Amino acid sequence: MAASDRSVVVDIRTRRAVKERAPETPDGPDPLLRTVYGVILRDERLDQDRTLDDVARAVGMSKQYLSEVERGRKEPSSEMLHSVCDALGLPIEQLLTRAVRRITASRRLAAHRPTGTPRVELLAA
């Protein structure tokens, strides 16, 4: 991954970089649905300060499998998605709604972003 393909997440309270991650709105084709679901589930889990192990135990799956789901590497069944959502207290409808919003936002940004233009994102806590 080239340096220009990464975004830095900054905690605006401490003004320090928290972590580096791939952009959620990549140039090119739409992200896979499993990738979008994974990002949403990981964000929800982290917002609740829960570990992979905690959620995986609640669902009855290995934390390695849950990690792969969160990274978009595994395509979970609808039953598995429902179980993870239940463990997080996230209605499945919200998962679906958030996924549609992310994909729609990705398409809008891709349509309006000139190629080669640096991108700046402000993420609030």
From TrEMBL:
InterPro entries xref list: Cro/C1-type_HTH, Lambda_DNA-bd_dom_sf, TransReg_Diox_bact_type
Entry keyword DNA-binding: yes
Database matches in Pfam families: HTH_3 (PF01381)
Keyword DNA-binding: yes
SUPFAM superfamilies in alphabetical order: lambda repressor-like DNA-binding domains
CDD domains named in the record: HTH_XRE
Keyword terms: DNA-binding
Domain HTH cro/C1-type: 41-95
Protein name: Helix-turn-helix transcriptional regulator
Organism per entry: Microbispora maris
